[in-house]
Design goal:
single chain; alpha/beta; 365 residues; 14 helices; Dehydroquinate synthase-like, alpha domain
Protein backbone atom coordinates (compact mmCIF):
# COMPACT_ATOMS: atom_id res chain seq x y z
CA UNK A 1 0.00 0.00 0.00
CA UNK A 2 1.12 3.54 -0.73
CA UNK A 3 3.04 5.51 1.90
CA UNK A 4 2.03 9.15 2.07
CA UNK A 5 4.54 11.89 2.82
CA UNK A 6 3.07 15.23 3.88
CA UNK A 7 5.58 18.06 4.22
CA UNK A 8 4.89 20.70 6.88
CA UNK A 9 6.75 23.97 6.36
CA UNK A 10 6.33 26.44 9.24
CA UNK A 11 8.36 29.52 10.08
CA UNK A 12 10.26 27.60 12.77
CA UNK A 13 10.73 24.17 11.16
CA UNK A 14 10.20 22.00 8.10
CA UNK A 15 9.29 18.36 8.78
CA UNK A 16 7.39 15.40 7.35
CA UNK A 17 4.35 13.43 8.41
CA UNK A 18 4.73 9.91 7.05
CA UNK A 19 1.48 7.91 6.87
CA UNK A 20 1.23 4.25 5.90
CA UNK A 21 0.87 0.62 6.95
CA UNK A 22 3.65 -1.21 8.85
CA UNK A 23 6.06 1.71 8.55
CA UNK A 24 7.51 1.53 12.08
CA UNK A 25 9.67 -1.34 10.85
CA UNK A 26 11.15 1.10 8.29
CA UNK A 27 12.03 3.79 10.83
CA UNK A 28 15.80 3.54 10.24
CA UNK A 29 15.34 4.14 6.50
CA UNK A 30 12.89 6.96 7.15
CA UNK A 31 15.34 8.67 9.53
CA UNK A 32 18.15 8.24 6.99
CA UNK A 33 16.04 9.63 4.14
CA UNK A 34 15.04 12.63 6.26
CA UNK A 35 18.68 13.14 7.39
CA UNK A 36 17.71 12.92 11.07
CA UNK A 37 20.66 11.81 13.19
CA UNK A 38 21.21 11.14 16.91
CA UNK A 39 23.19 8.77 19.12
CA UNK A 40 21.00 8.49 22.21
CA UNK A 41 17.24 8.28 22.31
CA UNK A 42 14.67 8.21 25.11
CA UNK A 43 11.45 6.48 24.04
CA UNK A 44 8.51 7.52 26.20
CA UNK A 45 6.15 4.60 25.76
CA UNK A 46 2.42 4.75 26.34
CA UNK A 47 1.49 1.78 28.56
CA UNK A 48 -1.42 1.08 26.17
CA UNK A 49 0.87 0.34 23.22
CA UNK A 50 1.15 -3.44 22.71
CA UNK A 51 4.61 -4.89 23.43
CA UNK A 52 4.96 -6.19 19.87
CA UNK A 53 5.19 -2.61 18.56
CA UNK A 54 7.81 -1.75 21.18
CA UNK A 55 9.80 -4.78 19.99
CA UNK A 56 9.54 -3.68 16.36
CA UNK A 57 10.77 -0.20 17.24
CA UNK A 58 13.60 -1.55 19.41
CA UNK A 59 14.73 -3.97 16.71
CA UNK A 60 14.83 -1.26 14.05
CA UNK A 61 16.69 1.25 16.22
CA UNK A 62 19.22 -1.30 17.49
CA UNK A 63 22.16 0.85 16.35
CA UNK A 64 21.06 3.64 18.71
CA UNK A 65 21.57 3.80 22.47
CA UNK A 66 17.99 3.43 23.65
CA UNK A 67 16.31 4.23 26.95
CA UNK A 68 12.64 3.45 27.66
CA UNK A 69 10.26 5.19 30.04
CA UNK A 70 6.70 3.87 30.47
CA UNK A 71 4.02 6.55 30.73
CA UNK A 72 0.59 5.93 32.24
CA UNK A 73 -1.54 7.88 29.83
CA UNK A 74 -4.41 9.85 31.33
CA UNK A 75 -5.33 13.52 31.67
CA UNK A 76 -4.44 13.55 35.38
CA UNK A 77 -0.84 12.66 34.50
CA UNK A 78 -0.49 15.67 32.20
CA UNK A 79 1.37 17.61 34.89
CA UNK A 80 4.75 18.96 35.98
CA UNK A 81 5.51 15.76 37.89
CA UNK A 82 5.51 13.81 34.62
CA UNK A 83 7.69 16.44 32.94
CA UNK A 84 10.17 16.24 35.82
CA UNK A 85 10.45 12.44 35.51
CA UNK A 86 11.36 12.75 31.83
CA UNK A 87 13.86 15.55 32.49
CA UNK A 88 15.57 13.53 35.24
CA UNK A 89 16.15 10.60 32.86
CA UNK A 90 17.63 12.96 30.26
CA UNK A 91 19.91 14.73 32.77
CA UNK A 92 21.00 11.51 34.48
CA UNK A 93 22.05 10.00 31.15
CA UNK A 94 23.68 13.21 29.88
CA UNK A 95 21.49 13.77 26.85
CA UNK A 96 22.50 16.75 24.72
CA UNK A 97 20.39 18.79 22.33
CA UNK A 98 21.48 16.67 19.34
CA UNK A 99 20.07 13.53 20.97
CA UNK A 100 16.41 12.65 20.68
CA UNK A 101 13.19 11.96 22.56
CA UNK A 102 10.49 9.84 20.91
CA UNK A 103 6.86 9.94 21.94
CA UNK A 104 5.37 6.52 21.23
CA UNK A 105 1.70 6.69 22.16
CA UNK A 106 -1.47 8.73 22.03
CA UNK A 107 -2.07 12.45 22.17
CA UNK A 108 -1.55 12.77 25.92
CA UNK A 109 1.92 11.26 25.64
CA UNK A 110 2.69 13.49 22.66
CA UNK A 111 1.62 16.62 24.55
CA UNK A 112 3.73 15.75 27.60
CA UNK A 113 6.80 14.56 25.69
CA UNK A 114 6.67 17.53 23.32
CA UNK A 115 6.57 19.96 26.25
CA UNK A 116 9.37 18.12 28.07
CA UNK A 117 11.46 18.20 24.87
CA UNK A 118 10.86 21.90 24.33
CA UNK A 119 12.01 22.76 27.85
CA UNK A 120 15.00 20.40 28.21
CA UNK A 121 18.07 22.59 27.59
CA UNK A 122 15.70 24.90 25.65
CA UNK A 123 14.98 22.21 23.09
CA UNK A 124 16.03 18.66 22.23
CA UNK A 125 15.13 16.73 19.06
CA UNK A 126 11.61 15.33 19.25
CA UNK A 127 9.99 12.62 17.11
CA UNK A 128 6.30 11.78 17.42
CA UNK A 129 4.97 8.29 16.67
CA UNK A 130 1.23 8.68 17.36
CA UNK A 131 -0.55 5.39 18.06
CA UNK A 132 -4.16 6.55 18.28
CA UNK A 133 -6.36 7.81 15.48
CA UNK A 134 -6.98 11.02 17.43
CA UNK A 135 -3.27 11.75 17.67
CA UNK A 136 -2.58 10.81 14.04
CA UNK A 137 -5.13 13.26 12.66
CA UNK A 138 -4.77 16.07 15.17
CA UNK A 139 -2.44 16.44 18.14
CA UNK A 140 0.73 15.13 16.46
CA UNK A 141 0.50 17.87 13.82
CA UNK A 142 1.32 21.52 14.38
CA UNK A 143 3.57 21.65 17.41
CA UNK A 144 1.13 22.30 20.24
CA UNK A 145 2.34 20.82 23.51
CA UNK A 146 0.85 21.19 26.95
CA UNK A 147 -0.11 20.02 30.41
CA UNK A 148 -3.13 20.64 32.63
CA UNK A 149 -3.63 22.36 35.97
CA UNK A 150 -6.53 23.01 38.34
CA UNK A 151 -7.72 25.95 36.21
CA UNK A 152 -8.27 23.85 33.09
CA UNK A 153 -6.85 21.82 30.24
CA UNK A 154 -3.63 22.54 28.30
CA UNK A 155 -3.15 25.93 29.98
CA UNK A 156 0.63 25.43 30.35
CA UNK A 157 2.65 24.57 27.28
CA UNK A 158 4.59 25.66 24.24
CA UNK A 159 4.63 25.57 20.46
CA UNK A 160 7.39 23.12 19.54
CA UNK A 161 7.53 21.40 16.16
CA UNK A 162 8.83 17.81 15.94
CA UNK A 163 11.60 16.60 13.66
CA UNK A 164 9.28 13.97 12.23
CA UNK A 165 5.85 12.36 12.64
CA UNK A 166 5.39 8.67 11.79
CA UNK A 167 1.76 7.53 11.63
CA UNK A 168 1.51 3.76 11.26
CA UNK A 169 -2.10 2.80 10.47
CA UNK A 170 -1.41 -0.82 11.45
CA UNK A 171 -1.05 0.23 15.10
CA UNK A 172 -4.64 1.48 15.09
CA UNK A 173 -5.93 -2.08 14.79
CA UNK A 174 -4.99 -2.63 18.45
CA UNK A 175 -7.37 0.13 19.60
CA UNK A 176 -10.81 -0.38 21.14
CA UNK A 177 -13.80 1.01 19.24
CA UNK A 178 -14.13 3.89 21.65
CA UNK A 179 -10.66 5.18 20.72
CA UNK A 180 -11.49 5.03 17.00
CA UNK A 181 -14.57 7.17 17.64
CA UNK A 182 -12.35 9.68 19.46
CA UNK A 183 -10.17 10.05 16.40
CA UNK A 184 -13.20 10.31 14.18
CA UNK A 185 -14.22 13.43 16.13
CA UNK A 186 -11.23 15.30 14.70
CA UNK A 187 -11.76 13.84 11.23
CA UNK A 188 -15.33 15.14 11.32
CA UNK A 189 -14.18 18.53 12.59
CA UNK A 190 -11.64 18.79 9.76
CA UNK A 191 -14.30 18.06 7.14
CA UNK A 192 -16.56 20.80 8.50
CA UNK A 193 -13.69 23.28 8.39
CA UNK A 194 -12.53 22.18 4.95
CA UNK A 195 -15.41 21.54 2.55
CA UNK A 196 -18.79 19.94 1.96
CA UNK A 197 -17.08 17.50 -0.42
CA UNK A 198 -15.01 16.04 2.42
CA UNK A 199 -18.03 15.91 4.73
CA UNK A 200 -20.10 14.05 2.11
CA UNK A 201 -17.26 11.51 1.73
CA UNK A 202 -17.35 10.87 5.48
CA UNK A 203 -21.13 10.67 5.52
CA UNK A 204 -21.08 7.99 2.81
CA UNK A 205 -18.21 6.01 4.31
CA UNK A 206 -18.46 6.45 8.09
CA UNK A 207 -18.93 2.72 8.75
CA UNK A 208 -15.87 1.73 6.70
CA UNK A 209 -13.74 4.44 8.31
CA UNK A 210 -14.73 3.42 11.85
CA UNK A 211 -13.82 -0.18 10.94
CA UNK A 212 -10.41 1.01 9.63
CA UNK A 213 -11.14 -0.34 6.16
CA UNK A 214 -8.74 0.50 3.35
CA UNK A 215 -8.66 2.83 1.40
CA UNK A 216 -11.25 4.80 3.40
CA UNK A 217 -9.20 5.17 6.58
CA UNK A 218 -6.07 6.31 4.71
CA UNK A 219 -8.00 8.99 2.82
CA UNK A 220 -9.67 10.22 6.02
CA UNK A 221 -6.33 10.49 7.83
CA UNK A 222 -4.46 12.12 4.95
CA UNK A 223 -7.28 14.63 4.25
CA UNK A 224 -7.30 15.66 7.91
CA UNK A 225 -3.51 16.03 7.95
CA UNK A 226 -3.57 18.14 4.78
CA UNK A 227 -6.23 20.44 6.23
CA UNK A 228 -4.20 20.97 9.39
CA UNK A 229 -1.00 21.43 7.35
CA UNK A 230 -2.64 24.21 5.35
CA UNK A 231 -3.76 26.03 8.48
CA UNK A 232 -0.62 25.54 10.59
CA UNK A 233 1.63 26.80 7.79
CA UNK A 234 -0.36 30.03 7.62
CA UNK A 235 -0.74 30.49 11.37
CA UNK A 236 1.73 28.43 13.39
CA UNK A 237 1.04 29.99 16.79
CA UNK A 238 -2.72 30.44 16.65
CA UNK A 239 -2.78 34.20 16.20
CA UNK A 240 -5.79 34.11 13.91
CA UNK A 241 -6.64 31.42 11.31
CA UNK A 242 -5.58 28.43 13.44
CA UNK A 243 -8.41 29.22 15.85
CA UNK A 244 -10.80 27.48 13.43
CA UNK A 245 -9.31 24.16 14.60
CA UNK A 246 -10.94 24.77 17.99
CA UNK A 247 -14.46 24.19 16.64
CA UNK A 248 -16.30 22.40 19.47
CA UNK A 249 -13.24 22.46 21.74
CA UNK A 250 -14.26 25.25 24.14
CA UNK A 251 -17.27 23.16 25.11
CA UNK A 252 -15.24 19.94 25.00
CA UNK A 253 -12.49 21.09 27.36
CA UNK A 254 -15.10 22.42 29.79
CA UNK A 255 -16.95 19.09 29.73
CA UNK A 256 -13.74 17.19 30.47
CA UNK A 257 -12.78 19.55 33.29
CA UNK A 258 -16.30 19.43 34.77
CA UNK A 259 -16.03 15.64 35.05
CA UNK A 260 -12.48 15.98 36.42
CA UNK A 261 -11.12 14.08 33.41
CA UNK A 262 -13.18 11.02 34.28
CA UNK A 263 -12.87 7.85 32.19
CA UNK A 264 -16.59 8.22 31.53
CA UNK A 265 -15.71 10.80 28.87
CA UNK A 266 -12.50 11.07 26.89
CA UNK A 267 -11.28 13.94 24.75
CA UNK A 268 -12.59 12.86 21.35
CA UNK A 269 -16.01 12.06 22.74
CA UNK A 270 -16.10 15.48 24.38
CA UNK A 271 -15.17 17.06 21.04
CA UNK A 272 -18.08 15.38 19.24
CA UNK A 273 -20.53 16.58 21.92
CA UNK A 274 -18.87 20.01 21.74
CA UNK A 275 -19.29 20.16 17.95
CA UNK A 276 -22.94 19.21 18.31
CA UNK A 277 -23.46 22.00 20.85
CA UNK A 278 -21.51 24.50 18.72
CA UNK A 279 -23.56 23.86 15.58
CA UNK A 280 -26.82 24.22 17.55
CA UNK A 281 -25.60 27.54 18.95
CA UNK A 282 -24.52 28.58 15.44
CA UNK A 283 -28.08 28.01 14.23
CA UNK A 284 -29.50 29.80 17.28
CA UNK A 285 -27.55 32.93 16.29
CA UNK A 286 -28.61 32.61 12.61
CA UNK A 287 -25.13 31.69 11.40
CA UNK A 288 -25.94 28.15 10.24
CA UNK A 289 -29.05 27.23 8.26
CA UNK A 290 -31.64 24.83 9.68
CA UNK A 291 -31.03 22.42 6.79
CA UNK A 292 -27.26 22.21 7.36
CA UNK A 293 -27.76 21.89 11.11
CA UNK A 294 -30.01 18.89 10.41
CA UNK A 295 -27.49 17.29 7.99
CA UNK A 296 -24.58 17.54 10.44
CA UNK A 297 -26.68 16.49 13.44
CA UNK A 298 -27.95 13.43 11.57
CA UNK A 299 -24.37 12.45 10.77
CA UNK A 300 -23.25 12.83 14.40
CA UNK A 301 -26.18 10.75 15.59
CA UNK A 302 -24.94 7.84 13.45
CA UNK A 303 -22.35 7.38 16.21
CA UNK A 304 -24.28 5.21 18.65
CA UNK A 305 -22.64 6.35 21.88
CA UNK A 306 -23.18 10.10 21.51
CA UNK A 307 -26.70 10.39 22.92
CA UNK A 308 -25.69 8.31 25.93
CA UNK A 309 -22.63 10.50 26.57
CA UNK A 310 -24.70 13.68 26.37
CA UNK A 311 -26.68 12.38 29.34
CA UNK A 312 -23.54 12.73 31.50
CA UNK A 313 -24.39 16.42 31.78
CA UNK A 314 -27.43 18.07 33.32
CA UNK A 315 -28.55 21.56 34.33
CA UNK A 316 -26.94 21.27 37.76
CA UNK A 317 -23.50 21.29 36.09
CA UNK A 318 -24.01 24.36 33.90
CA UNK A 319 -22.36 26.78 36.35
CA UNK A 320 -19.28 24.56 36.47
CA UNK A 321 -19.19 24.26 32.67
CA UNK A 322 -19.39 28.05 32.32
CA UNK A 323 -16.60 28.47 34.89
CA UNK A 324 -14.21 26.32 32.84
CA UNK A 325 -15.28 27.96 29.57
CA UNK A 326 -14.39 31.34 31.09
CA UNK A 327 -10.90 29.97 31.90
CA UNK A 328 -10.28 28.98 28.26
CA UNK A 329 -7.02 30.38 26.89
CA UNK A 330 -8.76 31.94 23.84
CA UNK A 331 -10.64 34.42 26.02
CA UNK A 332 -9.28 37.97 25.99
CA UNK A 333 -12.05 39.63 28.01
CA UNK A 334 -14.86 38.82 30.43
CA UNK A 335 -16.80 37.31 27.54
CA UNK A 336 -16.43 33.72 26.35
CA UNK A 337 -14.84 33.34 22.93
CA UNK A 338 -16.45 30.57 20.86
CA UNK A 339 -15.68 29.10 17.45
CA UNK A 340 -18.92 28.65 15.51
CA UNK A 341 -19.82 27.61 11.95
CA UNK A 342 -21.62 29.42 9.12
CA UNK A 343 -21.35 26.73 6.43
CA UNK A 344 -19.12 23.89 5.31
CA UNK A 345 -15.70 25.48 4.95
CA UNK A 346 -16.81 28.73 6.61
CA UNK A 347 -15.98 29.06 10.30
CA UNK A 348 -16.77 32.01 12.55
CA UNK A 349 -13.88 32.72 14.92
CA UNK A 350 -13.98 35.16 17.82
CA UNK A 351 -17.69 34.92 18.54
CA UNK A 352 -17.83 36.67 21.90
CA UNK A 353 -20.75 35.85 24.14
CA UNK A 354 -21.64 37.05 27.62
CA UNK A 355 -21.41 34.14 30.11
CA UNK A 356 -24.92 34.92 31.41
CA UNK A 357 -26.39 34.70 27.92
CA UNK A 358 -24.63 31.41 27.29
CA UNK A 359 -25.79 30.08 30.65
CA UNK A 360 -29.40 31.00 29.84
CA UNK A 361 -29.10 29.31 26.45
CA UNK A 362 -27.73 26.13 28.01
CA UNK A 363 -30.55 26.04 30.54
CA UNK A 364 -33.14 26.30 27.78
CA UNK A 365 -31.53 24.02 25.20
Amino acid sequence: MKTNNILINTKTKKYSIVVGFNIIKNISNILSNKKITFEKCLVVLDKNVPNKFKSILKKNLKKKKLFFHKFYSNEKNKNFKSIDKIHKILFKNRFNREDCVISFGGGIVGDVVGFASSTYKRGIKFINIPTTLLAQVDSSIGGKTGINNKFGKNLIGSFYQPELVISDINVLKSLPDREIICGYAEILKSSLIDSKKNFVYLDKNIKQILKLKSPFIEKAIVDSCKLKKKIVEKDEKENNLRKVLNLGHTFAHAYESTLNYSKKLNHGEAVIIGIKKAIKLSHHYNLLSKNKLAIITKHINKIDTIKRLEKLFNKKQINKIIYFMKSDKKNMSEKINLILIKDFGKIKTDFHIDPKKLKNYLYKS
